[in-house]
Amino acid sequence: MTATVRKTFYHTARWLVRALWRRVGTLEVTGLEHVPVNGPCIIIANHQSYLDPLLAQAVVPRVVHSMAKSTQFASPAMARLMSLIYTFPVRRYEPDPIAVRTVLRLLGAGKAVMIYIEGERSWDGRLQPPRRGTIRLLLKAGVPIIPCRIDGAYDAWPRWGRLRRGAHVSIAFKPALNLPALDRRADREAALESATDRIMATLSAPGDRWAGIAV
Amino acid sequence: MAIADIVYACIECGGVETLRPAGDAETCERCGTRYCRVDGALIRAERPGRPPETRSAGEWLDLLAAIGADSPHAIRPAPVLLRIADRQRPHRAAGMYLGRIESFGPELEGVLSLAGDRLAVQTEAARFEWSLLELTAVQPSSRALQLKVRNGPLLSFKFPEGSAVLWETRVQRALQDLYTSLGRGTIIEFQPRIVTR
């Protein structure tokens, strides 16, 4: 499959998701100007629902490569679909150097990558602790980090329930965090806690553990 | 998808994993308390002769933990659907190697038990048993609980009459108790691998 066909499929899927969502609920998007039009960046988001990747990627006008759990690629048909929408696998039950290398290679080629920093959908809608490996990756990457806070998706389609109509979902992209690129492992470990607080504070809602921490 | 994943014990009678589907709601099979989804993703408990109680999923989980509904004393063998991923295949896109993907085997019906330092599944045809010390990761995945065995397969457990949230808590707690008793420290992460401090 050519790159053009893949890209056309992706943007058609984006349009389709936006069109279908208008029949299900409403959508409010703010801060899209914080997402660079070109060049490498990592968009980090909270994860409440199946809707998050669909809606967040549908509203960003450039191709966004996203990380998804490897077990979602289990069936060949699903693996093909995931590839068509620029999604790549990560093995969550063991350290996955290939997924890390894929992210760094995509960023090196000037692409945008989306990562759900909690590593899985929240059972109760609250922000969960981040995957420490992801924070280490952000500290190694040295590219703009665009926080993306998604609200309302949980009410529409919680992990334990079905999709319901009439939901209002808001997606807020925040100003970029520019973390230093730390090549040495010891430096990344030293910066891990403070980077975690900074990153999670940007994704927090009132009442979350990191809410109120100065960014 | 089920309210029982979140409300894994009945607030009225204290029965653990007693909620069963009943139309568009779920009802405790012991006392008849009805649980339904209202206003987005809130869960309401309706008990005869008492005012309804509506809480968010997080509030239900906090409440059940506070009253000890996730106590290890309440663990009983539970029906389970087990799948074992013991094969892998490479995955490529646009000519790029993107890693290896697990292939799960057939779904096996059985009964899961967790006692002492062992986890076991008894099916009609076979018995599978793992020491908790063999586990290297614990992760929820959709409505399943997945466990990685050291130098072994990825195991996926679905609970047709139970709660993946509760079983995740139980396995994590059993692991922590075992690690503590062996002087291995406090577990600070369960995935991508168990890490202690």
Report on the structure:
The complex is a heterodimer of chains A (215) and B (197). With 215 residues, chain A is of the alpha/beta class. Chain A is built from 7 helices and 7 strands, in the order αββαβαβαβαβαβα. Helices cover 40% and strands 18% of the residues of chain A. In chain A, helix 1 (3-24) packs across helix 2 and helix 5 crosses helix 7 (185-203). The longest helix of chain A is centred in the N-terminal third of the chain and has 22 residues, at 3-24. Chain A is globular, with a radius of gyration of 17 Å. The termini of chain A are far apart. Chain B starts with 18 loop residues before the first strand and ends with a strand. In chain B, the strands form 3 sheets. In chain B, strands 6, 7, 8, 9, 10, 11, 12 and 13 form an 8-stranded antiparallel sheet that branches. In chain B, strands 1-2-3-4-5 form a 5-stranded antiparallel sheet. Chain B has 2 helices and 15 strands. Chain B folds into 2 domains: 3-69, no CATH class; 74-196, Pleckstrin-homology domain (PH domain)/Phosphotyrosine-binding domain (PTB) (PH-domain like, Roll). In chain B, a hairpin with a 4-residue loop joins strand 12 (144-149) and strand 13. The interface between A and B is large, with 42 and 42 residues.
Gist of the model:
Chain A is built from 7 helices and 7 strands, in the order αββαβαβαβαβαβα. By secondary structure, chain A is an alpha/beta fold.
Q: What is the element layout, followed by pairings?
A:
The complex is a heterodimer of chains A (215) and B (197).
Chain A: H1 3-24, E1 26-30, E2 41-45, H2 51-59, E3 64-69, H3 76-84, E4 87-90, H4 97-108, E5 112-116, H5 132-141, E6 145-151, H6 153-156, E7 168-173, H7 185-203
Parallel strand pairs in A: 1-7, 2-5, 2-6, 3-4, 3-5
Antiparallel strand pairs in A: 6-7
Helix pairs in contact in A: 1-2, 5-7
Chain B: E1 19-22, E2 25-28, E3 34-38, E4 42-46, E5 53-55, H1 57-66, E6 78-93, E7 96-104, E8 108-115, E9 118-123, E10 127-131, E11 135-141, E12 144-149, E13 154-158, H2 164-181, E14 187-189, E15 195-196
Antiparallel strand pairs in B: 1-2, 2-3, 3-4, 4-5, 6-7, 6-8, 6-13, 8-9, 9-10, 11-12, 12-13, 14-15
